[in-house]
Design goal:
Four copies of one chain form a homotetramer. Chain A is an alpha+beta fold. Chain A has one domain (about 1-275): 4-Layer Sandwich (Glutamine Phosphoribosylpyrophosphate, subunit 1, domain 1). The first copy, chain A, has eight helices and 13 strands. Chain A has helices at about 15-20, 25-30, 75-80, 125-135, 150-160, 165-185, 220-230, 235, and strands spanning about 5-10, 45-50, 65, 85-95, 110, 115-120, 190-195, 200-210, 215-220, 245, 255-260, 265-270, 275. Chain A has a seven-stranded antiparallel β-sheet with strand order 3-2-4-1-10-9-11. In chain A, helix 5 crosses helix 6. Chain A is globular, with a radius of gyration of 18 Å. The two termini of chain A are about 25 Å apart. Chains A and B meet through loops of A and loops of B. Chains A, B, C, D: Keywords: Glutamine amidotransferase, Glycosyltransferase, Transferase. Chains A, B, C, D: One of its GO terms (molecular function) is glycosyltransferase activity. Chains A, B, C, D: This is Class II glutamine amidotransferase. Chains A, B, C, D: Its EC number is 2.4.2.-.
C-alpha cells in the first residue's frame, strides 16, 4: 500500500505540502496512520505540469522525478520540491505489495499528457498478471516499463479510453479486473484509490470490490481552511479553487478535510468540482 | 537511532535470526518498539567472521556486506544471509540521526580484526566533530571513511587502546567525549549501546551520560530458552554457550531475554560470560 | 552488450579472476576491447554454486549477488568475491541495450538449479517482446521479474525443455525468435553468447543469425596455461579439468585462449569437454 | 579525474549541451578523449541558478541535483535537464580518484551563493587530508559533507576569502596545498581545473604544480561559432555574451574552442571576459 497527494490550484512549491505540515507526506512515509502499513519507504515520485506559457513546458507532458530510496532521506527530492513552482502536481510514496523496489515501479506513471498514481492492490496479482497484460492494446504494450499492478491498471484504462472518457475507462478497467479475477475464483479483486490528470482536470477514484476501500480525502473550500487554520501561512496566498486530494489528512485539520465516499470519484477542475458514484462496468 | 544484533555460538545462517523470529531484526526495521524511532530504514550492515580453518578466511578480518537501502527490501541481504554459515556475526539496521545515508556511514565498521557497531548518538555532534576528530591518532585517521559519530567513537577507542584492553579504551573514549562536551557546555553528551569483537570475544556496552540508556538485552542460557520455547527450532541445534545480544528482544520470549543493566558491559567469550559496571575515565 | 565469465573447476575465490588478471572482468567493465561498447557499467552479477556437502547449500540452487552500480566501484562485490570459495560461478557486467538499469535486469538469472547469462540482443526487441512473452509457459510466466531480452530467452528456453535437453532447447529458442522476427520482417534477429549451468555441467553458446557473433573464448588445458604463464600463481593450484569461458581473454595469453567457433556450443563437464555446431530449430 | 561544463548566457535547457552535441558531456561520460580515464561513471551533478525574479529562486542559492549512478543511465538527469531553464549552470561527471562513490562526494559543491566543481587531484591526498582539513575555518568545518580533495579545496578557498576575492583565495589555496605537500616531501601536489560562481560571474581556473595541467577550453564569441556551425541550432538563439567553459570540446568545432592557457584563469562576466595568469601565493 502507499500514500499519495494530488494538488491543483495556485502554483506553489511542492515542498510546502510535502515537508511542512504536521502530518505531511514525508511524515506519512514513516508514520502513516490510516494505511495497512505505517512505513511507506519503497520509493517515491513527484510528477508536475509546467504552467501554460512556461518555456520549460515540453509538449504538455508532465515532468517526473522518481527514486527508489525512502522519501524521507532523499536529498534531491527535498531540493527539487523547493525549486519547482507548479499548479498541478502528484506526489507518491510507495509501500510495495510484492513487486520489486525499482524506479520503473515508482508512481506516478506517465503516458503523453496523462499521469496516474495508485494506492491499493489487485488481489493475487501474480496469478492474473499475464491475462491482464494481454488485454492491453498491443500498440500501448511497449510503453509499459515496470511490473506493478498499478502501472498495468493505467495501461488497461488507456486501452479502454482513458484519454477520451476517464471515468468510463476506469469503470471498465475495474470491471475487467473483477471479471478476470472471477474466472480465477479470486474474490475481492480490486482495492484502489487512484488519481489521474491530463494537466487540466484531476480525477480521484476510491473503490474496492469489498466496499471497504482505503481512505481518501479532499480539502474543502479554502475559506473554511483559512478560518480554521489562521496560522497555516501557505493557505493565505492560494486561490479559492485550490484543492488537495490525499490518502490521509496532512494534519488534525478538523473540518478541513472530507472523506471521498465509498465507491465514488471526484473531479477537480476549473468551475465546480464534482463527486459521483463509481460503478464498475463490463469491459 | 538504530537496532542491532550480535551473535556468538554455533555456526548458523544469519537469516535464521534476521528474518524468521516474530520480532526479527527485519521486523524491527519497520516496527521497532523500544527505540526513539519505529523506522530503521537508513541502510544496514552484516559483518561476520569465517570459521577458523575456513579457506575463505582472510587474515582473520571479518567480512562486511553493507548497503544504503532499507534492510526489509534488500534482495542481496536476504540472499546472502541465507548462504553464509558463521559462528560470530553482527547485524545492524540504521536510523540516521543526521549524517547522510551512504555506505560509508553504515555499521558495522571494521579495522583489522575488529568490528564495531553502535546505537545512540553524541549530543550536538556537529559542534564537537572537529575537536573529537583531532583526538584520533594521525596514523589511524586515514582509515576513517564516513561521517558518523559511531565510526568516530570506534577510532577514538582504537586510539585509546581498544585492541589491547577494550573495556578500558571504551571507558576512556566515553570520558573523552563527555569532557569535550563539558567544555562546550553540552550536557548529556553520550547515549550508546555498542558491540565490538575481535573474532573471539564480543563486548556489549550500555551507557548514557544521563543514565537513561537505550535498551540492550542478552539471551540467557540456551537450556532456559529451549524449555520456554520448544517450537523455536533453531535453538535445538545450537550449543549451550551460544549467546545473542540485541537492542530489543526478537519476540515475546518472557524469561528468555535479560536487560543489560544501566551503565554496564558484558563479555561473551569461551568460558563464563561476565557483566560488570562501566565507568567513564579521563582520557 | 555485455561481458561475462563462467568458471568451472577447482574451488577458488572469484576475486582471483574478476580483479587480478591484467584484463580482468573488472578491467573490461571500463575498457572492453572486443565488444560493441568499451564501457560495461550498467550493473553486474555474481552467481555461484556451493560445494556438494557444504552446509550453506540451499536445495542445489545457486546463490546470486547482483547490483546496479558499475562493477568497478562496487565495494560489496569486491568484498564478497574475496570471501566465497566456489568451484562453479558466473560473473557478468552489463551494458544495457535499452532496458532499464535495475537489479531485476542484471544477469545471471536463476530458475531452480539453473543459471543463465547473456551477451547480445534480440533485434527490435520492443516490437517482438509481447509475442515472445506469450510463448513462455504460463506456469513459468510469474517467475519473470525483469524486462530484458536476456531473461526472456532464458524463460523461452525453459519452456522449450532447457532442464531436460539444454542444447535442443536453446536451438528451439533461437528458432522461435528468428521465426517470430521473420513474421515482423526483422532480419538478423539473434545475436548471442549465452552461458547456462545446472550446477554440474556448463554450456556456452555462440550464435548470431548473421553469422557474425560476438566473441567467446575458452581456456585450453591448464598445463598449457601453466607453461605459458609460470607467473600466473592461481593456475598452479587448480586441477587440470578447470575451465574458463569468457567474452574476451583475461590477458594477452597467446595460446592460452581459444575462440569458440561461429555458431557452436561447448560443454564443460566432468570427463571430456565437447564443442559442436549449433543449429536453430523450428520451435 | 572528471569532466565538467560551465554555462553562462541566455537561459537554455541544460539538455541542449549535456545530451545533444556530438561529443556532449554525456558522451564524455563513456568516451572522454583528453582525460586520464575514458570513463567518468562515478556519479554526476547539475547545479543551476534561477533567473533573477524567478519565483523559484531561493535566497540566491543555486539548486543542486546530484547522483551516484553514471550520468549516461540516469533517467532523472535526462528528465530534469530538459525541464529547467537556466542562464548559469554547472554540470559535472565524476571519475573517482579513490574517495567513495557517494552523493556527498559529487560535484558541484555549494556554500551559500557559491558553487564549485573540480577536475584533478591533490597528490597523496590521504597523507595530507588531516592537515589540510585543520586549515579550514572551524566555523566552516561543519558544512563539509564528503571526503574528496575537491570539496576540501572549496572550503580552504572559502576560508581564504573566496567570497571577497576569488582569484586571490584560489591562489592562496594552491599555495597552501603546495606548501603542505612540500613539508611531506610530496612533489607535483596540485592538478586542477576548477569552476566557481557566485551566480553572476563564473571563474575558470587551470593549474598544476608540474605545469602540465588537465585540458580546459572556452567557447569563443558566438558569432564565430555561428559562422562555423550553421547547423548547431541552439547557437542561433543565444546572446553574444554566452560562454561555455568545458574540460574538452563538445565536438570537432575547430576554431570554436580555445584552450585556457597553462596556469591561468578566466572570468566570464557581464562586459568583457578576462584571462590572466594564475600565481600560487603563500597562504
Amino acid at each position: 500500500m502507499c500514500r499519495w497527494l494530488a494538488y491543483s490550484g495556485t502554483p506553489i512549491l511542492p515542498m510546502e505540502l510535502l515537508y511542512k505540515p504536521e502530518h505531511s507526506l514525508i511524515d506519512q512515509s514513516r508514520h502513516a496512520r490510516m494505511g495497512v502499513e505505517t512505513t511507506n519507504g519503497d520509493g517515491f515520485g513527484l510528477g508536475w505540469y509546467a504552467e501554460p506559457g512556461d518555456p520549460d513546458q515540453w509538449d504538455g507532458q508532465p515532468a517526473l522525478f522518481r527514486g527508489t530510496s525512502p522519501a524521507w532521506s532523499d536529498v534531491n527530492l527535498r531540493e527539487l520540491s523547493g525549486r519547482i513552482h507548479t499548479g498541478l502536481f502528484f506526489a507518491h510514496i510507495r509501500a510495495s505489495t510484492g513487486s520489486p523496489v525499482q524506479q520503473t515501479n515508482c508512481h506516478p506513471f506517465r503516458h503523453g499528457r496523462w499521469m496516474w498514481m495508485h494506492n491499493g492492490a489487485i488481489a493475487h496479482f501474480a496469478e492474473l498478471h499475464r491475462e491482464l497484460l494481454l488485454a492491453v492494446d498491443p500498440s500501448l504494450y511497449p510503453s509499459i516499463q515496470g511490473s506493478t499492478d498499478s502501472e498495468l491498471m493505467f495501461y488497461l484504462s488507456l486501452t479502454l479510453g482513458l484519454e477520451h472518457d476517464p471515468v468510463h475507462a476506469v469503470e471498465r478497467m475495474i470491471g475487467l479486473v473483477e471479471q478476470t479475477a472471477d474466472k480465477h475464483g479470486i474474490p475481492d479483486a480490486m482495492q484502489m484509490t487512484v488519481a489521474t490528470s491530463d494537466g487540466v482536470r484531476t480525477w480521484g477514484f476510491r473503490y474496492s470490490t469489498s466496499r471497504r476501500s482505503r481512505s481518501l480525502f479532499y480539502s474543502t473550500d479554502v475559506n473554511t481552511l483559512r478560518r480554521l487554520h489562521p496560522d497555516f501561512a501557505e493557505l493565505r496566498e492560494v486561490s479559492e479553487d485550490t484543492r488537495i486530494v490525499v490518502s490521509e489528512p496532512l494534519g488534525p485539520l478538523s473540518g478541513a478535510w472530507q472523506a471521498v465516499p465509498e465507491s465514488s470519484y471526484g473531479v477537480v477542475q476549473p468551475g465546480d468540482d464534482e463527486i459521483h458514484p463509481l460503478v464498475p462496468r463490463a469491459a
